[in-house]
Specification:
Radius of gyration: 16 Å
Order of helices and strands: HEEHEEHEE
Largest sheet: 2 strands, antiparallel
Number of helices: 3
Number of strands: 6
Strand content: 15-25%
Strand order of the largest sheet: 1-2
Structural class: alpha+beta
Bound molecules: zinc ion
Mean pLDDT: 84
Helix content: 10-25%
Length: about 130
Amino acid sequence: MKLSACELRTMLCEAKVLSPIYNADGVIMDIGRDARLFPRWMKLAARDRDGGCLVPGCTEEPALLDYHHFKPWSKGGHTRLQDCCPLCRSHHVMVHNGYLRLVKVKGLPYVILPKHLDPDQQPRRNTYFSRAG
Ligand SMILES: [Zn+2]
């Protein structure tokens, strides 16, 4: 019987068992709601993906970042790589107070700046740490 990851997780959850979800290469991508805090390897993977704080122009030292759940844990958010958003402490606070907004574009977290800074409300990512540059 074929099951989607969601169906499998639901069945395992009801059975009081939760197991990680792996990608085709055997890398754990999702540990569901077993743990609220992102494990170190997931933080490093998100930092490798995004380079540093997601907010355009931010140059905070990557070692000092916080890791924010794209969907808040308190509202059912999952501890998974695609929802692990590196933010410096200042920008993390700004996300929580609604000054900055996070959205996803093609599975990646992007930032919407406040209207007075970006009237077009374009999703943006920080390019400061871009490997291409
Ligand atoms: Zn920042």
